[in-house]
């Protein structure tokens, strides 16, 4: 069962992402987190930090993997 669900999401991954984004865009209600504007900046900083740490981890991981390229 899980393989079928995973196969579905993998097969249609290029369409599901934009559809979920549009769905969130149209039904979402922008608001400050917990109704406090001060927390908005904190969450922005935490989000950017999380994204940068994820990219750093990706770069480090890819740096350790040898990729063999070339033809015969």
Structure commentary:
The protein has three helices and no strands. The N and C termini lie far apart (40 Å). The protein has 72 residues and is an all-alpha fold. The mean pLDDT is 87. Helix content is 74%, strand content 0%.
Write a compact overview of the structure shown.
The protein is an all-alpha fold and 72 residues long. It is 74% helix and 0% strand. It starts with a helix and ends in an 8-residue tail after the last helix.
Which range does the strand content fall in? Answer: under 5%
Helix/strand structural class: mainly alpha
Rg on CA atoms, Å:
19 Å
* 3D shape: flat
What string, H for helix and E for strand, traces the elements in order?
HHH
Low-confidence stretches: none
**Helical percentage:** over 70%
Taking all residues together, what is the mean pLDDT?
Answer: 87
Most strands sheet: none
Distance between the termini: 40 Å
The number of strands is 0
Number of helices: 3
